[in-house]
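Could you help me review a protein record that somebody else here produced? My question to you is simply how this chain folds and whether the tokens agree. Thanks in advance; the entry in question is below:
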Amino acid sequence: MKWYEMTVDETLAKLGSQAESGLSTLTATKRLKKFGKNQLTEGKAPLGLALFFKQFKDFMVIVLLIATFIAAYLGEVVDAIVIVIIVFINSILGYSQEHRAEKSLAKLKQMANPVAHVRRDGAWLTIPSSDVVVGDIVRLKSGDRVVADLRIMTSTHLSIEESAMTGETLPIAKTSQVIHGEQLNLGDQTNMAFMSSLVTSGHGIGVVVATGMETMVGQIADLIVQAPKQTTPLEKRLQNLGKVLIFVSIMLTSLVVGAGIWQGQPVYQMFLSGISLAVAVIPEGLPAIVTVVLSLGVQRMIKKKAIVRKLSAVETLGSTSVICSDKTGTLTENRMTVVELYLNGRLFNVGGGYRLTGDITATSNQAEEKMLARFLQYGSICGAAEFVNHNGESVIQGDPTDVAIMMAAAKKSLQLTENLQIKKITEFPFDSTRKRMSVVIKDHQQHYAIVKGAPDILLKRADRIEENGRIIRLDQQQRKKIELMINQMASKAYRTIALCINPLQHPNRVKAEDVETGLVFIGLFAMIDPPRPEAKQAIKQCKIAGIKTVMITGDHAGTARAIATELEILPNQGQVITGSQLEQMTDQQLIEQVEQTYVFARVTPKDKLRIVQALQANGHVVAMTGDGVNDAPALKTSDIGVSMGRTGTDVAKEASDLILLDDNFATVVSAVEEGRHIYENIRKFIRYLLASNVGEILVMLFAMVLGFPLPLLPVQILWINLVTDGLPALALGMDGAENNLMEQPPRPIKEGIFARGLGFKIISRGFLIGIVSFIAFLLAYQNGAQSIQYARTIAFITLVTAQLIHVFDCRNERSIFDRHPFGNRYLIVAVLSSFALMIPVTYVATFQAIFQTVALSLRDWLTIILLSSIPTIVFGFTKR
């Protein structure tokens, strides 16, 4: 229903309610029973054990569980127990990170007032807000949360702050008048009040037109439930990796079993040998190391003022190709600030931003100085702002426009904000119909009316102007000069407020119409919600990194265009699309247009969802920033939802993956850099782990194909995968970022984990590691003087040593010499620790019994080190 197009009487008739008596108690009870409580329905989210077991759906975890059953079947109970412990710890870490991921709708419910003031059976009652029904007459006053969607019936200086719904900075003045228009945005429906918005001033009465999930907030809540969860690029890549490993395991098992049977080996024995080889393919420590490295990234990001709510989101940031940013409070400060003053025919610049101190352009003479001081003082008097003590600090509170003007007065002198010598006699508050307010004051025995409001309205009511301290007639030439200045300010998206005075002869017998006619024009205030100082540089960094920034806002197109131009978001050929234009587009048309569009203005929550989905359809990884209730569905649908920690609503925070503690757009860029850094480190240790596993596989494969005994036992393979490989892999995950990280384009969303030559590096390095380990085994086995345990010990230690030398090659995509090989102190400690752990395995009797090893001589060690160095020597001088 387009309630805004209906009169109050038509609305009441449609809803079956009465203005003077409201609903009867019987009618209200029937409606409550029929339509339900005035509250939002929560979506079904996994909780407790369900959320815990959800962690086991990860493909790599499933692969590990298969490996566990295989190990148990082979009688390797210790191996199976160790793998189960790893899987369990990994699931606990994932569960703890996602425990609070599905609470956004509960937070939406908490935004409603606990009580509502309604008229029933002709009397005003206070009832729980959940008992409000359609047709109830509701009373509103300053400070109230609107309990349901209302059609305004009466309005007395009523203003409601709806930024969490619309994205607009300023409170919206409400009226009861009928509004005509097709598909009006929420911000333009000025005779409506919406659930969860805040009454900032005045009072009024409205009739309930929608409750619960039928309200605008309820529709947003429904969008959050319906919004699909995105699988992160890292999750997709690890799933693909798991599939590759399964495929390789099956192929190797089939190959070995077939080769053994062809050579005449017993079928059962070859089946067990093939299964042992398949187990060697699986890097048991990989999921745990990925989780730990992501957790370390989370800790680093906390230091950068960002809280990550889902581990995999850290890496996804590094894949981001588009950042869809809300304007208000994200790219701008969400604080109206006076930036220019116009009086006495001159333009004055106001510096210092949203602070009580700052510079104002110097005046040219004493008369102008006095005029400027009075202009600022009168501007702060004619308003609803005041100094209050907040945590021991003086701050200004009140209407954002009035706060901005008082702050400008304080920059000139704090004394200008004090009214000790000025007595306020009468006040006519701001009215959306009049578009102005006025106060009558007594200043030095003279009575004045100070009138402040829309420049076009006040200029029509002015017939004089003050220049150089003198009041003269406002002629046509001066009027055009003022109009030109108003247009210039508007072109820069400034909000302009005019200030006039009216000397009064009979101040005690005045009406608003009397004091607001025949005015003396004094000057103009120009204000804006300014861009955050660091946002422009952050956007430049995004461009260098190949990341497109798109502004999505509920604000007017002119304001959005001006801010986007100043921040250099909008290029010369870039498009600006409004919500009404978006409404006329099909999804396919939007997909085609979205690549050339940099600003979306006057959009609805559904529009934001469509924009994000259109970008994703074009192959983009989308990060969406926002702070309002209206942003929540898009935050959840995007690949990375980024909410504001200070000004953001609880709903936005709970729907997001990343929370910025400082509400700083630049922090998003730092997070993107950290995400890229983490992904490159993940590639490094995957390269290391899989090359090591390839070496293990080939040692086993060569021996089986050539008819030799197994060079490695399952318990030795497990020790290598979990202990010897684990520490260096973890240290690679802590490797420092390379200098040109943010000069590279985003990774293509379809790029596999083995892209950019990683697959070749894994196979080639692993092949050489396997060759030298098998040669070491062969030399020891053919010696004949020692047992099979001796040969296996030689192969075991050679394989480990070759891997520990190779790990330094994994620090760089090109060559070991492109970075200082010992630049990662964590890696040095890890390698030394892993090597030290081999000593008891080789020389302590208890461990020798477990790992089937024997003590080695110095000559053995020299041979091992020589053979183990060959892979790194061969490939250390190549660029591939």
